[in-house]
What we know:
Elements: E1 3-12, E2 15-18, H1 19-27, H2 32-38, E3 42-45, H3 52-66, E4 74-80, H4 91-102, E5 111-115, H5 121-134, E6 142-151, E7 164-174, E8 179-189, E9 195-196, E10 204-205, H6 207-229, H7 247-262, H8 266-275, H9 287-303, H10 305-314, H11 322-325, H12 332-346, E11 355-362, E12 366-374, H13 378-383, H14 387-393, E13 395-396, H15 399-408, E14 429-435, E15 441-446
Parallel strand pairs: 2-13, 4-5, 4-6
Antiparallel strand pairs: 1-7, 1-8, 2-3, 6-7, 8-12, 9-10, 11-12, 14-15
Helix pairs in contact: 3-4, 6-7
Bound molecules: acetoacetyl-coenzyme A.
Acetoacetyl-coenzyme A binds at residues 30, 32-33, 36-38, 119, 158-159, 161-162, 195, 205, 207-208, 210-211, 214, 243, 245-246, 248-249, 327, 329, 361, 363.
Amino acid sequence: MTVGIDAVEIRTGKLRLDLAETFAPAQGEDPGKYTKGLGLYASSFPDVYEDIVTMGANAAHRLMDRKGLEPRDIGRIDVATESAFDNSKPVSTYIAGCLEQVYDGDFHHANKGERKFACISGTQSLDDAYNWIRAGRNRGRAALVIATDTALYARDDSGEATQGAGAVAMLLAEDPDLVELSPEQGYGSADETDFLKPQQQFPSVDGKRSMQVYLARMREAIMDYESVLGPIHPEDYVLIPFHTPFPGMVRRAAALGYRHATRDTEVEEKLAAEIGRQPRREEFDSDEAYREAAGEYTDDLTESDRYQEWYSRCVEPTLSISRQVGNWYTGSVHVARIGGLKVALENGENLAGGRMLVCSYGSGAQAEVHAETIQAGWAEEIAALDIDDQLEDRYDLTFEEYEQVHDVHNHDSDIGVSDVEQFTQPDAEFVFDGWGRMGERKYTYVG
Ligand code: CAA
């Protein structure tokens, strides 16, 4: 039995903050920090009537409509988020409630839940759904996995540069049209305090350390994966989507992964004439001296033609959407997968049968690596997305408007939804519609 992702939908927040033109000048910073350093051009934000439920429900609704599904076809709804507003009732119940407004039938016989482990919980939810189908507990039904986040940082936190908001809905099913998931996985996991939200909306983050932890856990996960399948070769994969808090992070992770995976291979030998062989720890008296030499080798490696050709073919395409939307936390690696496939489709490539190495990460911290095989129906699935239109239609915020939007979505702010005019008009979508008698958030479908 093949099990994997049958279809995807992506929903961006409807507002856009231009990082180079609008944010950088207001912060007194050089735009190059965003476009060249972090690799980001814009962030997506939710309009005042949008949140993690509306974005998730709107993505799931389009997916179900496009695939001709009814509630009875779905046996499971898993939501992954770092932005939940309810410590008991899962976001999946709110999303199911939305969808039941527009479909005949209900999701009363679907198992619902919510997963938490920072950004990696999107991939963990895929795993849960995959295992449920492989175990034969699905009764022929599919699973909806929705990764949805409003990734906001406190004003003037260093992370403010990498914000974003959006949702990815994925349908996990037998005989998938998009990708088959491999059963093999590698993990790198440790108790870390690099990024966390202890009973608070905005993260406490040690930005520079979080980057080191990302790289360390990713390296562990690759080594664990290799302990199952033997050495991996980066040039065996057509695309390598990484968790993308910002493209600059992926630039580092890809270089580290390539260096690790090509050590003691013919690639290292071929590159040796140009940049020498990789430094080995035993050749140095101290960790510091070794790290310095390894850093210099990595700089030379990333300048080499061979590496640059690999990077622009296998990694750069996965950043195409992320550069325009920022970090979507749980959805981020899934946006990278879609971005890579979308560029391949635009370039007329035939990827059917090709393999991707998907590298997920969540702070706190855990990395996971698995492979996916691209299926024959991939091009049709990706062609059905309307993400270009959504990106194009976003409302461009001024800096003052951005400040208002940040306040509206700040749970501790006195500024409420009713204090700020919406910037866009809802059109055939779920919207936030105020609070109910028990403090629950309420939603309506606007036709
Ligand atoms: N032209 C070109 N490049 C420039 C530049 C200019 N004018 N000005 C700065 N840069 C470069 C810098 O050299 C730097 O690049 P390198 O790291 O390659 O040297 C880059 O732009 C960023 O500049 P700074 O380091 O000065 O930026 P910063 O101090 O404001 O912080 C950050 C960057 C730590 C990533 C911060 O945005 C942050 O805290 N982000 C949130 C945490 C995060 O995303 N961590 C990633 C790993 S954790 C994770 O992945 C989980 C998750 O989703 C949160």
